[in-house]
């Protein structure tokens, strides 16, 4: 019969539960065993799989367990929460290192292997071909290019995204105004901070109205790509005077009508600042408790941008580096599809389209506002364009005790015949134009060919324009809402020949209500008013003087600078020989 003996019981002298660690045998003390950090969420897998040396066991071959491999996986793949696992940054003590030198190792078969169809190499080659096809399909094939632009060229699945795509991030733009060392920066605000602002503003108060309006010619609403009309050069005068040079603004300021004085063009640019990509600047003068927001003559507010929000917007040629003697000293002549050339072309199109689409011969008759055009002098002989100026006051006060008002000069281009009285702000129309230059050129933004898609797939054309020209369309919509216009006419104008930027044709015209179009563009007017109120509060804390609000040319940031009172006066003196502040801008 076998004997039975009780095992040795080690009493814990410390009084705790269980045996004392000092009394344990050496094989239970984990001596000389390294510690590997772990997480409770790690799962145990195979320790070894001798039948499969690929897949997850590659981590085992490198000395990592499957749990550690999951912990060291990139965020978002191995873990759902996207955070690094506990102990993922610790070097593994179980890693295997080769004990022998393998520098003499070499392959026996050095022949190049032929990639099989459908294999990994074929897939990689297809991705590269797809990347190049982004420009072939997106440019030459028109309509399909818009859909393929994000699949072929935009997808980074194992091929390059586009031709010379690595150079696009290195392209830098120049600021709209040269920053002088004498200027002192007061504030720097990022766009993501501007997007969080909000201020609800009530309906405005109408002060005075000036100018003359003609009726919109409704026959342009029936134009199709098969019945296109040429864009004509109409000799008319339309003024784009800045705030400080406006005699009506000066009279209203003398009566203390408001705190801030500006125009709808400048105000819409500030309200839509988070959408802007190209640089711009606003000159602000504080006199007493009044602020005047001005634009510079020939500045960015005098022209219209093209495809500003496209993934690869049009670019101007890079100016030569004077410090590089090997580089050409003569600057490259900008092409017709450069950013500056397209901006001038779009401005020309917008002016002439607005002049052409109104009827000046009654019926219907022209509508005279309360007062005549304030910028048209008695010595002027050229005919005036159809334009009405409405001076309106918006209350930006947060509480009832605050007296923060902004006086805005708004513009309307025509009125809709058969509607109510335009003198009462009913049936007013603003006229704008989108232009197509060359769907195969760089900077087209994957736009389809309008002549083939505008009548059958107008939605695709509109969606592409809303993506590529988000800032421009938003500013047009805000201007129409500020002016109280009921309709906004948008013309689709293309070049008669893609290689000729002097002749254009009208392919179609559409009508939209500004408030409905603002919802489609996801425009938040309270956010725009919040931006205006924030900038106003910052400026009211500063002493009297001149300031410049500058949008950074390459970053989503605006900066406020304090500048001398003599700033920009040299430019004004140079412009006295040509166009000064009160001269008209005739097409």
UniProtKB/TrEMBL annotation:
This protein's UniProt keywords: Cytoplasm, Initiation factor, Protein biosynthesis, RNA-binding
Main location: cytoplasm
Top-rank taxon, per record: Eukaryota
Localization: Cytoplasm
Residue stretches of biased makeup (Gly residues): 127-157
Keyword Signal belongs to the record: no
Segments of this protein annotated with the region Disordered: 1-21, 57-84, 115-168, 302-337
Gene Ontology CC: one annotated term: eukaryotic 48S preinitiation complex
Sequence ranges of Low complexity compositional bias: 67-76, 115-125, 324-334
GO BP annotation list: cap-dependent translational initiation; formation of cytoplasmic translation initiation complex
Oligomer and partners: Component of the eukaryotic translation initiation factor 3 (eIF-3) complex.
HAMAP family linked: eIF3d
Domain text: The RNA gate region regulates mRNA cap recognition to prevent promiscuous mRNA-binding before assembly of eif3d into the full eukaryotic translation initiation factor 3 (eIF-3) complex.
Role this protein plays: mRNA cap-binding component of the eukaryotic translation initiation factor 3 (eIF-3) complex, which is involved in protein synthesis of a specialized repertoire of mRNAs and, together with other initiation factors, stimulates binding of mRNA and methionyl-tRNAi to the 40S ribosome. The eIF-3 complex specifically targets and initiates translation of a subset of mRNAs involved in cell proliferation. In the eIF-3 complex, eif3d specifically recognizes and binds the 7-methylguanosine cap of a subset of mRNAs.
Protein family per UniProt: Belongs to the eIF-3 subunit D family.
Name by which UniProt lists this protein: Eukaryotic translation initiation factor 3 subunit D
């Amino acid at each position: 019969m076998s004997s039975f003996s009780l095992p040795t019981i080690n009493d814990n002298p410390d009084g705790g539960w269980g045996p004392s660690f000092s009394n344990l045998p050496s094989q239970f003390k984990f001596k000389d065993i390294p510690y590997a950090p772990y997480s409770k969420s790690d799962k145990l897998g195979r320790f070894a799989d001798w039948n499969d040396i690929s897949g997850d066991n590659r981590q085992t071959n490198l000395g990592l367990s499957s749990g550690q491999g999951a912990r060291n996986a990139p965020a978002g793949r191995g873990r759902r929460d996207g955070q690094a696992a506990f102990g993922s940054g610790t070097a593994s003590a179980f890693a295997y290192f080769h004990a022998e030198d393998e520098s003499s190792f070499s392959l026996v078969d050095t022949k190049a292997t032929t990639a099989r169809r459908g294999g990994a190499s074929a897939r990689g080659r297809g991705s590269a071909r797809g990347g190049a096809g982004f420009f072939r399909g997106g440019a030459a094939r028109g309509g399909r290019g818009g859909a393929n632009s994000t699949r072929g060229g935009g997808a980074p699945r194992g091929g390059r995204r586009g031709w010379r795509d690595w150079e696009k991030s290195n392209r830098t733009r120049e600021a709209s105004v040269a920053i002088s060392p004498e200027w002192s920066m007061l504030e720097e605000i990022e766009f993501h901070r501007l997007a969080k602002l909000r201020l609800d503003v009530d309906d405005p108060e109408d002060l005075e109205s000036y100018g003359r309006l003609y009726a919109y010619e409704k026959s342009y609403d029936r134009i199709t790509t098969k019945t296109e009309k040429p864009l004509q050069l109409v000799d008319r005068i339309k003024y784009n005077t800045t705030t400080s040079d406006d005699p009506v603004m000066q009279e209203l300021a003398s009566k203390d009508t408001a705190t801030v004085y500006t125009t709808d063009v400048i105000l819409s640019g500030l309200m839509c600042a988070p959408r802007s990509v190209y640089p711009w600047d606003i000159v602000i003068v504080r006199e007493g408790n009044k602020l005047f927001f001005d634009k510079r003559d020939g500045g960015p507010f005098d022209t219209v941008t093209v495809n500003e929000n496209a993934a690869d917007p049009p670019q101007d040629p890079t100016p030569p580096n004077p410090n590089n003697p090997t580089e050409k000293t003569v600057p490259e002549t900008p092409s017709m599809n450069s950013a500056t050339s397209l901006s001038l072309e779009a401005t020309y199109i917008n002016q002439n389209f607005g002049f052409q689409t109104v009827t000046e011969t009654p019926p219907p008759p022209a509508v005279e506002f309360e007062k005549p055009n304030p910028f048209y002098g008695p010595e002027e002989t050229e005919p005036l364009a159809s334009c009405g100026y409405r001076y309106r006051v918006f209350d930006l006060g947060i509480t009832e005790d605050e007296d923060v008002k902004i006086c805005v000069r708004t513009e309307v281009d025509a009125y809709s015949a058969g509607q109510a009285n335009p003198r009462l702000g009913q049936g007013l129309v603003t006229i704008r134009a989108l232009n197509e230059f060359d769907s195969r050129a760089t900077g087209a933004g994957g736009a389809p060919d309008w002549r083939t898609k505008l009548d059958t797939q107008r939605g695709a054309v509109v969606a592409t324009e809303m993506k590529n020209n988000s800032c421009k369309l938003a500013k047009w919509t805000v201007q129409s809402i500020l002016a109280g216009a009921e309709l906004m006419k948008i013309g689709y104008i293309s070049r008669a020949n893609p290689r000729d930027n002097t002749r254009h044709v009208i392919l179609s015209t559409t009508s939209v209500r500004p408030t409905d179009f603002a919802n489609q563009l996801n425009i938040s007017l309270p956010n725009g008013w919040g931006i205006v109120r924030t900038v106003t509060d910052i400026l009211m804390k500063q002493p009297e003087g001149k300031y410049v609000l500058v949008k950074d040319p390459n970053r989503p940031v605006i900066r406020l600078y304090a500048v001398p009172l003599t700033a920009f006066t040299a430019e004004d003196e140079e412009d006295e020989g040509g166009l000064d502040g009160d001269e008209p801008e005739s097409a």
